[in-house]
Structure formats: C-alpha cells, structure tokens
Design brief:
Elements: H1 7-17, H2 39-46, H3 50-57, H4 65-75, H5 79-89, H6 105-113, E1 119-123, E2 128-131, H7 134-139, H8 153-160, E3 166-168, H9 172-189, H10 194-206, H11 208-215, E4 225-231, E5 235-246, E6 251-257, H12 263-277
Antiparallel strand pairs: 1-2, 1-6, 3-4, 4-5, 5-6
Helix pairs in contact: 2-3, 2-4, 4-5, 10-11
Length: 284
C-alpha cells in the first residue's frame, strides 16, 4: 500500500470535497453523479482543459505556478493547502509576497445574491477572479476563458483595448491614471510577486500612455463613477459604478447599478432577463 502524499492524490481529494454552489457552479436538473466538482467544471473554473485535469489527477502532468494558483482559487484551498500544493508540485511558495487571489465565502454569497446587477470580483492588481451572469452580459467578454494578463483590467485597458461593449468614462485620463496608481500601490505592497512585476514591465514597453502615467508618479483614487455604456442589445445606458473593498480577502468588488425608475434601469432589467434565459451568452 502506497501512503505517499502526491499532488495528484490531493487534487482528487480537494475536487471531491469542493461544493459546486460555493464555486459558483449551478446545479442542473437531476441528481449529480459525482460528489464535489466534475473535472469539466474544475477545468472551466481554472481555464484549462478537462483532459489536463485528468492528466494532473493521474500524475502525468505537473502544473505551472499560474495554473496552480488558478486551481487553488477554484478549489478554495486554504493558505496551508496552497503551500502543500506548491511543495508537491516542486514550486517555491511565497504566499506573503504574492497578490492574494482567494475569495471569501461571504463575497461569493454576495455575488450569488446580487444576481440582477452586474458584479465582478478582482484581485488588488485588477485581475478578474469571479463574476455573476450579468457581468459578461454587460461587458460582452467571455471572462471564464481568460487567465493571467488576459484577465487583467489594466492590461486589457492599455494593451488590448478591444472590448465589444463600449464604456465611456466622464474623465478617461483620470480613470486610467487611477488604475496605474492602483498598480503602483499594489506593486509596493507585494514586491515578491514576479508575475506582477513582469506585467508592469511589459505594460511600460507595450503602451506609451501607460509608461507616461507610470513615470508621472500619478496618484488617483477609485471612487463611485457615472459611466455611459453603449450595449449592442439594449442600447445606451447611464450607470453608476461602485468599487468596494473586502478587507478580509483583499479584493475589489465592482458593481454597476442604475437609478430606479429610469430608462437605464429598465434596460438593465431587460439585460438581466436575457442573461437568466441565456446564461453564459456573450453579446457580440
């Protein structure tokens, strides 16, 4: 009998204990045929293929650092469990020096219960972690297919700039300056996060605008903002955007709302009904 602790074995245990509801996975009609998360569900949450999860659980593959962090977040591992996973994968683990990417159960409940308004959770460096069905319906982005830089709002703003839904800010320069200031503050708090340092280096190289704002030493704080959104399904909406903080897990919670009784509120209701009927649908 082999009692050796392996990453493959631990991943099987952690997947079996994971509760689909806690991970934001909706239960379909009929009884589940397996306890915990299915491989396909874990794969979708971690942005990898089901076959890759299978190979990991059979000990035929070894995850990279970013993939291990994504798996840890999807499985809601504790810090001690994440450290063990890193050790079993042969990776150095500096949890104190990395930007936290764990979401508390209370924040997950918040996402679930605010289903009629677009809400998403980002880490302190603006990397997307989770959202409700209304968020992709509003933004037109397939967030579940993104990981790392591709899921980072700062990278998307300065490098990609290709969102299918156009968002107009009252003061675009101030909005971008606030994102750069956020990144500067986070980089100072987590100097050992090599992924963050690498992204900032590449942002300065890829975007002249980012490089100029970074060099200027800009300081700007995020606050409630009024934004105009041109949506392909419902047209123009005037929405308030609030960025909230959760001190327990160091994440940013972004929520869009409309003033009650307005045309924008009705359009948001239409978008909510559409997302409920077509969960996961992305408007072109």
């Amino acid at each position: 009998m082999n009692d050796r602790v392996t990453l493959a074995g631990q991943l099987r245990v952690w997947r079996a204990r994971a509760q689909p509801g806690d991970a934001g996975v909706r239960s379909l009609a009929g009884a589940r045929r397996t306890s915990g998360l299915r491989r396909e569900e874990l794969a979708a949450l971690a942005c990898v293929s089901p076959d890759y999860i299978k190979r990991l659980e059979q000990g035929r593959a070894n995850p990279s650092g970013p993939v291990l962090r994504a798996l840890s977040r999807a499985l809601h591992l504790s810090e001690a469990e994440y450290v063990l996973a890193c050790q079993l994968a042969g990776h150095a683990c500096e949890t104190e020096g990395l930007v936290p990417q764990r979401i508390s159960p209370s924040v997950l409940r918040l996402i679930d219960r605010l289903g009629r308004v677009p809400i998403a959770v980002f880490d302190a460096a603006w990397t997307h972690l989770d959202h409700n069905d209304m968020w992709p319906a509003l933004t037109g982005v397939d967030w579940m297919g993104r990981r790392g830089r591709a899921a980072n709002m700062v990278w998307m703003t300065f490098v990609e700039d290709s969102a299918p839904v156009h968002v107009r800010h009252p003061d675009p320069r101030q909005h971008k300056a606030s994102m750069v200031a956020d990144l500067r503050e986070v980089a100072a708090r987590y100097p050992a996060d090599l992924e963050l340092r690498g992204m900032i280096r590449d942002l300065r190289s890829a975007s002249t605008e980012f490089a100029d704002l970074w060099a200027s030493g800009c300081v700007a704080a995020h606050s409630t903002a009024h934004k105009t959104i041109d949506h392909p399904l419902v047209g123009r909406m005037e929405l308030d955007c609030d960025t909230l903080s959760s001190h327990g897990c160091n994440v940013r919670i972004v929520v869009f709302t409309a003033e009650p009784g307005t045309e924008s509120a009705e359009k948001l209701r239409v978008l909510s009904a559409d997302s409920a009927e077509n969960p996961g649908h992305i408007h072109p």
